[in-house]
Amino acid sequence: MDLPGVRRAAGDLRMDIGRVTGVETEILMDVAPGARKVVIAGTIGHHPLINGLITRGHLDVRGVAGKWEAFLIQVVDRPVPGVDR
């Protein structure tokens, strides 16, 4: 579980993706989906998957760590088993 603002932003992103693509997407929390490509959103220090990606060196958060309302967009190969990107 992450901060309420992240959950709200994920819902907004879901709606935006639907408006642009016509495809209805899912929001899954703390579950690795069967999709090959996913968007992972979370807060440093509050989301176990994000923290794990940082610890394993898959996310470079030096530019956003400790900042207020900052974000990072980064492609990560094989972030979890069964997900390509």
Number of helices: 2
Structural category? mainly alpha
- Nearest-integer average pLDDT: 88
Helix content: 25-40%
Calculate the terminal CA-CA distance, rounded to whole Å.
Answer: 21 Å
Structure explained in plain terms:
With 85 residues, the protein is mostly helical. Helices cover 31% and strands 0% of the residues. The chain has helices spanning 4-21, 48-55. The mean pLDDT is 88.
Task: Briefly characterize the structure.
This protein has helices at 4-21, 48-55. With 85 residues, it is mostly helical. The two termini are 21 Å apart.
Topology:
Blueprint: H1 4-21, H2 48-55
Search tags:
85 residues; mainly alpha; 31% helix; globular
